[in-house]
Amino acid sequence: MLKRREVLLAGLATAGCTREAAALQGGWVGTHPERGHRLRAALPAASGPLKQAGVLIVGSGIAGLACARALVARGMSDVALLDLEDQAGGNSRGHRVAGAPCPLGAHYLPVPGAQAHEVLALLHDLGLARSRLGRTEWDERHLCHSPQERLFFDGSWHDGLLPPADGEAGLAQYRRFGALVSEVQRTLGFAMPTRRAPWTPAHERLDAQTFAAWLDGHGLTDTRLRWYLDYCCRDDFGADAATVSAWAGLHYFASRHGFHAPGDETAEREPVLTWPEGNGWLSAHLAEPLRDRLHLGRTVLRVTEGRHGVEALAWNEATQAPERWAARAVVMATPLFVSARLLATPPDALRALRQPHAPWLTANVLLRDPLLLRPGAPPSWDNVRYGSVALGYVDARHQTLDPSPQAPLLTAYLALPQAQRAALLHEPWQHWARLVLDDLAGTHPDLPGKVERIELCRFGHAMSIPVPGLRGSAALAALNDTRGRVVFAHSDLAGYSVFEEAYTAGALAAGRLSL
Ligand SMILES: Cc1cc2nc3c(=O)[nH]c(=O)nc-3n(C[C@H](O)[C@H](O)[C@H](O)COP(=O)(O)OP(=O)(O)OC[C@H]3O[C@@H](n4cnc5c(N)ncnc54)[C@H](O)[C@@H]3O)c2cc1C
């Protein structure tokens, strides 16, 4: 049976396809699914000279870049990173439309907590943070400027993303959920990165059930609260509360600043770091010092561990020829299901792991003219519509310090059900463009008539969905602890995907290598 979200998506797509509209300018950008799909074909004959490296890192997403940075910091200069795309950064790359910067994927990093040592050290090194009198001060230029977020609800915009409570009964449910989050925060412990939190039988029990079942069990059935929590799960995990575990749903709130019901005196809006190009700012700053070690447009097809080192077979996308690499050790900074295909002899844990991934779509929409204002809260960085199956849009111009008038550039986000992965690959970009524009028209009816250009990026296997049983699985624990000549480094090791997990996984992998 189709889930509600799939039915709504199918309805949106049909409406979009039948609507008369001027021909759209735009297309797919950013990812090359055909390169990844080379792994399904027979291996090409390996010939030619062996390229040498001390450590080979497969994948130059945040985890791969963090690992290279850590190895270079330890004095290991002979590092080579291979990536199938033409730009480093993976899901955290930036893009440009008509010369203007915008995110391709990840767009923000909440100010990290004290347990994220590695990420905090990086942010200090990049000049984003500094210590003064025992406190961390942030460079205001890179903190999200005000107004930060708003929700379109019942015909007008409201400050923040939490829908207005539905009377006293709705407010009571908001408060009850907030109290439960505080309780698990206090009694169980949650942290980001998640490896810094305890893992107890109580965590295990939360991991064994869906978040929706846990909410039902606590009588938290208020429609607005449940929409909001569903939205949060789709935004962070790419899947709804009925799909992710209760551990994941609570971790979202309890590992950071909790959940604040309206009127909560302790409420503070979580400060976030963001840039016009999203987390592309961070990946570009990580990649720049490594530029001589980056070998882009190299699709790795096979990694074989030998008695004295490892060998990798890659496909050079520029020369359309195979390339052989030899190294003393390899870091697999690719999604774990990709690593399972690449390794000639994958460890048992990798074979045993069952880890679903959510497909995502982003769309950068350049407009000819500003949008008409609707009643309520003013245009903000993050703009979401209550009841939408999409995730709203961020304003890529929001952080710009250039005062000259500029055409609006919006980045829209959509986490898709897994059943839509094939359609994401096969349907033309215009199909998805219409779907995105129809959704945005729900808040801005004048938007479709103002589109100058729309550039879409598809991520077939964007992020790990923390389904029940995944975070506490023995397979994931074993892969986190693998040592030797082949180690793993990817946000998949946390069971879900955010910058802090990717960066920490990469930085720690450097210390588990046997060289
Ligand atoms: C649309 C979207 C929005 C997001 N928004 C946020 C956000 O706002 N904040 C946040 O913290 N997180 C966000 N995330 C999560 C994001 O995934 C992480 O922040 C982080 O970028 C993950 O990094 P990673 O290195 O673990 O993985 P990846 O980014 O998956 O990196 C893996 C790398 O391996 C490469 N690769 C794969 N196969 C091969 C092969 N065979 N040969 C060579 N190279 C290969 C890929 O090209 C890629 O560069 C978002 C993700 C998506 C998709």
Write structural notes for this entry.
This protein has helices at residues 4-18, 33-36, 62-73, 117-125, 167-187, 201-207, 211-217, 223-237, 246-254, 280-287, 336-342, 348-352, 421-426, 429-441, 474-480, 499-509, and strands at residues 26-28, 50-58, 79-83, 94-97, 100-103, 108-110, 129-132, 135-138, 149-153, 156-159, 272-274, 294-296, 298-305, 310-316, 321-332, 357-367, 382-385, 393-395, 409-415, 451-464, 486-488. An eight-stranded mixed sheet has the order 1-20-16-19-18-17-9-10. Strands 2, 3, 12, 13, 14, 15 and 21 form a seven-stranded mixed sheet that branches. It has three domains: 4-30 and 95-129 and 357-464, Polyamine Oxidase, Chain A, domain 2 (Alpha-Beta Complex); 34-86 and 297-356 and 467-512, FAD/NAD(P)-binding domain; 168-268, Orthogonal Bundle (Guanine Nucleotide Dissociation Inhibitor, domain 1). The protein is built from 16 helices and 21 strands. Residues 13-20 have low confidence and may be disordered. With 515 residues, the protein is α/β, with parallel strands linked by helices. It is 30% helix and 23% strand. Bound molecules: flavin-adenine dinucleotide (FAD). Flavin-adenine dinucleotide (FAD) binds next to helix 3, strand 3, strand 6, strand 13 and strand 16. The site of flavin-adenine dinucleotide has 38 residues, from helix 3, strand 3, strand 6, strand 13 and strand 16.
* Whole-number tally of structural domains: 3
CATH architectural grouping of the largest domain: Alpha-Beta Complex
Shape estimate: globular
Residue windows where pLDDT falls under 50 for at least 5 positions: 13-20
As a percent range, the share of helical residues equals 25-40%
